[in-house]
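Q: For a teaching session next week I want to show students how multiple molecules come together into a single three-dimensional assembly. I've collected the sequence lines for a complex. Could you give me the predicted structure tokens for the whole thing so I can convert them for display?
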Amino acid sequence: MDPVSFITDPLAYGFMQRGLVASVLVGIVCAVMGTFVVLKGLAFIGDAVSHATFPGLVIAYIVGAPLYIGGAIAAVATALAIGLVSRRGRLRFDTSVGVLFAGTFAFGVLLFSTIKNYVADLLGYLLGNVLGIRTADLIQLAILGAIVLAVVLLIRKELLFATFDPLGAAASGLPVAFLEYLLLALLGVTIVVSIQAVGIIMVVAMLVTPSATAQLIVVRFGRMMLIAVVIAALSAVSGLYLSFYLNLASGASIVLIETIFFLVALVLGPRTGLLSRAPRAIGQGAS
Amino acid sequence: MTSAPPPRRAAAPAGPIAVAVEGVTVGYDHRPALTDVSLSVTAGSLLAVIGPNGAGKSTLLKLIAGIIKPWTGRLTVLGGPPGSSAGRIAYLPQAEAVDWEFPVTVAEVVMMGRYGRLGFLREPRRRDREVVGQALDKVGMGEATDRQIGALSGGQRRRVFLARAIAAEPDLYLLDEPVTGVDATTQEDLMDVLEGEARAGKTVIATTHDLICAAQRFHQAAFINGRLVAAGPANLVLDQQLLAETYGGHVLVLPGDGGRVIIDDAHHHDQAPSGEHHYHEDSR
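A: Of course. Below is the structure for the complete assembly, covering every listed component.
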């Protein structure tokens, strides 16, 4: 097979076209949000919010509402609840999140077990099936993704300041608490946008892996975000082709290619590469 | 948050009051950190806030910055309630509060000082970049603009953060341990800069563990230990009784050195040379 048709042949299929657009879009939105997730140390929260969407999806299915709406309400509500706990709580923060995380997911599984017939849609959300995405879903996904990107890009300097130095930002008059809740709400929306592509269980990889890889390579915020976006888009495209030709699960393929990028950067990266002369610990003290 | 009434600069005989704290109690999780503190700071003064770890020094700065609200009592900051003049305040966090692996360069950190003035949706302009450059020159870091902050030494990091504060063009500096853990040259340079700012009418409130620096370079000192122990001219830090009261007796006196005192505190324990006399006054 010649290289050109290797690339173009899969594009003859509508599901492959939609899958490519959706996964690249999800990759980009996740990479942009992921830069903040990595720098603020929100990976565990991302995982928790993603699992918490499950009961929302199941309830939406049971009452016949659009699944996205159910998932979005559950995700944003959980993200804001976590924000509240982090400001008011008396327990250790990760403990509270762990309790919320497992409890909401268990509730979803419980509801799911009450549904008599086989529900392929809902199972698709657990592990992701971007090749099964419908045009209407793709449009919703594109709109929500565009909103997230627009908000983040418009207030990126405030988000950067509040992430880097919350006290200094608050003293200079930035509404730091509001920005934190906004970031969590955007994280909730991002997760809902992403779960159809890669599934509830692997969303956290889409959020964290490209940005973590980028942090191993560069030391500037803007470049970190850019490189994360490029890695995410490349992984989405190559993961889908891999999935197409070898008949592999699409979400898992994308995530594994991102993971390979990360491992390569870890070994060869200029900042922390295991091969460089003076390895340094990174990511410590992310508050 | 900046839509407060214009600041009233009442022409008190001894100069305008920049910060007035009246009977303020505040804390965290129902546990008070500061109880019934009253303090007034004249514009153009350099005030050192002194006390042991956990005494509430940082809490006092956060209170004045408007980051935390008092439980009881009243504060007036630059003529209004705290937080109303945020654009005229620069806050420097403790070095330990900063993630030094964060992917930002020196110039980017200093530019953050401009954000409060820029407002939402506005990008930095030429004048902002000029102010950032001048601030970096002022602290002697004009050559390092593109370096990642984690690649700097401890002293350089403090210089960069002071540059960020200067770039905000504030009327009030709130500095949490600006000279802790820096070399003598850096300390002198930073204090020179702050002295210049005070001469220009800006108010500087800084927490510090360095009593010698407080006595020599500051105008005034406030002694804090969960409450205000004393406030007055900076040379009060040489008053051993006052120090004993502030630090609960953990005071070292170096004999034969003109009454030099060192605080036996977690931060400073390792700096105390061996063989000194240890006066533990259990008077509290």
